[in-house]
Amino acid sequence: MTRSALLVTHTGRRQSTQHARTVARDLLAAGFEVRVIAEEVADLDLPPEVTTVDAPTPAAAEGCEIVLAMGGDGTFLRAAELARPVKAPLLGINLGKVGFLAEAEIDHLDEAVKDVVSGNYKVDERLTLDVRAEYGGRVIAESWALNEVSVEKGQRAQMLELLVDVDGRPLARYGCDGVVCATPTGSTAYAFSGGGPVVWPEVEALLLVPISAHALFSKPLVTAPTSSFALTVDPYTSFAVLCCDGRRTWDLPPGAKVTVERGQLPVRLVRLQPRPFTDVLVAKFALPVEGWRGNRR
Predict the structure, then answer these.
(1) pLDDT attached to residue 237
(2) DSSP letters along 121-132, please?
(3) In this structure, what CATH number is given to the domain that contains residue 246?
(4) CA atoms of 239 and 250, how far apart (whole Å)
(5) Which one of 5, 123, 147, 167 is CB 3.0 to 4.6 Å from 186, fit for a cystine?
(6) Which pLDDT value is given to residue 272?
(7) Where are the active-site residues found (predicted)?
(8) Which residues are annotated as a binding site?
(9) Mean pLDDT, the chain, as a whole number?
């Protein structure tokens, strides 16, 4: 039976394309069918044995043993859109700075490919979010997110009024720049910049983080993974913008209601040589483990 891999690359970076060629050749030599999306082929200069898939849809990853994302977090999220619906494991190859989503580093690229070929890896499941927006009794947007779903003001000079319900019960009405609903994976992304807590990825929970809320109570919340959030744009406020993972956006008219809950499908992440999340956190934020004044012992 032929083993298949889908290669998703940030073709705007020379380093990415160079390493994509290396990975493709190594996988082909190991007997893999290597698939590449048609719109990326011209920039990659790959061997003729590579299989071209016409469109960047989940069908591209159908039947794949693994999907490899060559680039930063944006490339990883793009690859996740293809891998998640068909439950394909996803490996992020880190092409630069330390990231939370990437697993393999360029310094160890040969070893990473060998581990993929030998099947020497584990697969973790990351919690996702499903989101639905309704207005006037009809669905106007439906999507999902790995990191976060945000509802933000559509006009820079005007505050957004949002009524937030948790588990079907009213929590608070915020005058704010927006509200972020995040997963533990997304706790180090947009939610973090809004003052939310860092949540270890193994923890199953949902986060709700008000952004610049003009309210006495505007603390970030951590709820059960079974919770649901409802964010209703006040009928007398300005329009809002719904955004999923910073990639998919929709305008929300006053009166629109957004429901966010745990996603039915997780993202399956490949871990080659898993590092403790504490080590990843220290490296990502360059935390001063010896203290700001140095090691005094």
Answers:
(1) 84
(2) -EEEEE--EEEE
(3) 2.60.200.30
(4) 11
(5) 147
(6) 87
(7) 73 (proton acceptor)
(8) 73-74, 78, 147-148, 177, 188-193
(9) 91
Range of the domain at 110: 3-126+266-285
162 shares its domain with 219:
yes
Q: What is the pLDDT of residues 144-185, one digit of tens each?
A: 999 999 999 998 888 999 999 999 999 999 999 999 999 999
Three-class DSSP category at 4: strand
Burial class (CB in 10 A: 0-12, 13-18, 19+), 55: exposed
SS3 230: strand
| Distance between CA atoms of residues 263 and 181, nearest Å | 12
Active site residue 73: yes
Can you tell me whether residue 18 is helix, strand or coil?
helix
Token pair listed for 129: 């979010």
Q: Which residues are annotated as a binding site for NAD(+)?
A: 73-74, 78, 147-148, 177, 188-193
Domain tally, the chain:
2
Amino acid present at 41:
V
Give the CA distances from residue 108 to residues 44, 75, 94, 120, in Å, rounded to whole numbers and listed in that order: 21, 19, 10, 14
Structure tokens given for 134 = 């309704």
- Residues 26, 73, 130, 245: which is the catalytic one? 73
pTM: 0.91
